Hints:
The protein is α+β, with helices and mostly antiparallel strands.
Amino acid sequence: MRRLWLIFAQAVTVSVAVLFVLNTLKPEWLKGAAPASVVAILEAPGTGATSTTAAAGSYAEAAKRSMPAVVHIYTAKDIARPRHPLLDDPIFRHFFGDRQDNAPAQRASGLGSGVIASPDGFILTNNHVIDGADEIEVALNDGRKFPAKLVGRDPETDLAVLKLQGNGQLPAITFGAKDALEVGDVVLAIGNPFGVGQTVTMGIVSALGRSQLGINTFENYIQTDAAINPGNSGGALVDSQGSLVGINTAIYSRSGGSLGIGFAIPVSIARNVLEQIVATGQVTRGWIGVEIQEITPELAESFGIPDTEGALIAGVLRGSPAEDAGIRPGDILLGVEGKPVHDPKGMLEMVAGLPPGHRAQFHVRRADTDLDLQVEIGRRPTPASER
């Protein structure tokens, strides 16, 4: 037994000595026996777990999916030169006669962005981007340019739909789910700010349902701190998957540049306007012909009502659906089709969403009496700016 132990101890000693000699004189022989994956990871930082972490914080895939569907819109229109004030001066006209100012009109150009909404060439953009334009050209992200025609517009939401005069399938954007956004979600704003070229900025959803900004008649904006600048109007606001969640429309700024407060029209509104314009060339909304007013605490006290819920009917247009149904000034509208009315904005949106010709139930309070009136919804008149 002792002899076996001595043989084992000598073998271990010789093995340790051989490893020591090899490690000293030929260390590469030992390294060559190591697994290749270990060497690759150590020699190439940025692969393996490190690259996975970097990819998780990147929105490159979302940008790649959505950027081809965002276009640049170039517009042109004639603007009459201002009449020289001396031409209206009686003394000047006495000496020089009635001269006509025949100077040619100035040619003005505009710049904005748009979103390809369908492969056959329908494009969503802002109404103010194409307002008054007599020439519209669209440049795709791949450099191709096409003339475009105006299909229809909706000044009350500041949206317009164009149609490309080109052939072939186009890279259309994917529409996001309705009401899928939450405050704090990451969003990307894509457009052509200041004409520098397609640009992607990142931010979060700062707020939802922003209204009473005085921008448009129907306001339900997404607020974001993703940088939106002049030229971004009509561009895409997309989520972290690259799906369209809004159309960039306006900014709050005292300098003309981004201050971190931008507004986008939600995709639900944009989609509804798009479908109506493509189908009929215009947007049809419900109307009853009343002037509404917010109920302040002072008004609530004077009317003897417990809270400020509802909308005060301040005036009724003669011959309107509201007058025909018996609605009077001083009534308080509390509900439409069983849905509560919380404020004038909510009432306006509810009525606008009803189809003309539909008979809807309006719940009103008159003095101390609650009434249910049947109102035949009319068609909202076309804004003067659209005629």
